[in-house]
Structures are given as structure tokens and as C-alpha cells.
């Protein structure tokens, strides 16, 4: 079984990293790695901006520091967009909402139960693909957080609040309400965990971020048929640059070639035996 698609070094978009750790991949798009997961900042420096995801618990101050290094002292986002509600994408959300008053949080309607204290995620599959992260996955938090006082649903027609050039795309599989963000004019994709660019099941790869194209993290993906359809849809967009939830950003004409390869061979590459 093929387990990954190695990405050539020329595809890896290192971008410009500032002193706070932000990697700029477009003049109005940057990301920060919080441990093993990325958060993204959409907006030009010193202007209005939007935060995508909230990283691991304990990284709230680091996210604030990075935001202020890019957007100015006391910079506050127009909103926080969540690709989904897994613990590694919302871990610092409550800290950030305490720091930034009156900032709304947007998520897909199918993700709301995991964000309003109602529903826990399904148990992980500790046999899904090996690796220490997989073995440890039963210990990962899956209970819902409750940010209902700030929570709103993304608009139904695909508009992204406060981002007129972007649209959200429903990309379920990893979670029921997982979304990705797409900007058509320059073919930029924020994929969340619909696909990722490192082997998240391996602690070594998750930390070192070896550049490989993978489906969503295996241990926390319950619906593989939907995950496959989501990757197929994203491949058909022919993205030129992708920032994923885990791993380094990648760009170039070969990205869409490799993404089609993942979609065409999804069962053998991504789905656990």
C-alpha cells in the first residue's frame, strides 16, 4: 500500500518568516505553526484581518504576539473562522476570546454542536495507520467546548464574513462540518485538515514536518467516503498554493498534479487498512 506522496522540495513554500514565527506566503496571507498545527492570518499588515483556527491549548499568547507583530499593537481580528472544532484547532480559542472582546466565531452549522457544549466527537481509531500519535489518540480531548455566546454560523451561500474575495467550501469527512477556504483569482486554498502536507500519525513527521501529501489525520477521520469526495472537489479546483492544518505550505503548478494523484489513489494512500 502506498502511504504518502513525497513532495518535491521545489513545492514547499517556506515564505518569509518574521521574528514572531509568522510565515508570509502572500502579501495578505500568513500562517503560524503552534506546536503541530497551523493557524492562518488573512489580511494585509497593519490593516483589518481575520484569524483562521486557534491552534493548540497554551499557544494563545503566541498567537496574539504574532498577530500584533503583523497587524500592530492591540490588533483585533474582525472574526475568527474555524475549519473545524478538533482540540488542536480550538485549543487556544477561549483564551483568545477572553483577550479580544466582542470578536465573533464562525463555523459550519454541522460543526456547531461541537462548539456549543452539546456533542463530543466520536472516539478516535487507535489502529488507524500506526505511529505514536495514533496510539496516543485515545488520550486526546474530544469533549465539546462552549463558545456559544460568540458563535455564529457561516453564511449559507459560501460567503466568508469580512473576506469578500474568499468563499468557504464544505469539505466533510474529517468532521461533519469541516470547511476549507478558497480564493479563486490566485487559486489559494486553506485546506484545514481535508488534506495535509505531513504524516500526522507520526510524532517525528508531525514535529519535523516532512513534506508529504496525505489525506486527513487517520485516527480522527470517521467518514472516509466523504473525505474522499472532499479531496476530489479540492483537486478539481486546481489550487496553486495550499496552506493546510498540518505541515508546510506548498505552491507551484505541480501541486494540483499531486493533489489529483491523491484523489485518484485515495483509498490506497489515505484510508487505513
From TrEMBL:
<dbReference type="InterPro" id="IPR001279">
    <property type="entry name" value="Metallo-B-lactamas"/>
</dbReference>
<dbReference type="InterPro" id="IPR036866">
    <property type="entry name" value="RibonucZ/Hydroxyglut_hydro"/>
</dbReference>
<dbReference type="Pfam" id="PF00753">
    <property type="entry name" value="Lactamase_B"/>
</dbReference>
<feature type="domain" description="Metallo-beta-lactamase">
    <location>
        <begin position="36"/>
        <end position="246"/>
    </location>
</feature>
<dbReference type="InterPro" id="IPR050855">
    <property type="entry name" value="NDM-1-like"/>
</dbReference>
<protein>
    <submittedName>
        <fullName>Glyoxylase-like metal-dependent hydrolase (Beta-lactamase superfamily II)</fullName>
    </submittedName>
</protein>
